[in-house]
Task: structure prediction
Amino acid sequence: MSTWITFSHSSAISKFFLSPLMLNSSVYITQRRDIIYQLTLLYLACVLAGFALANIPASSIITGGLASFLNVIGGLVIIIFSGAILYLGFKSLLNK
Result:
């Protein structure tokens, strides 16, 4: 009896148990690129959210102390996620 998975149809169970080494390498690379693109877009959205936090003006609802706190949090978010985007870029550049 053979324990190999047949590829007669695409099922969720066979995709779950397949390791990346058993897949075609181009399919694995394409899936990896898609994940990197999604992470980059997510980090870019976080950087934009950081800019939004950093530019909240003080008003009657948001006091000056809260606005300065959100300014600091927004600056930290911008720095952290910009660094994460740079890391993904260097990682992608060195893998090619």
Notes: Helices lie at 12-17, 25-54, 64-95. Residues 23-95 form one domain. Confidence is low (pLDDT under 50) at residues 1-9.
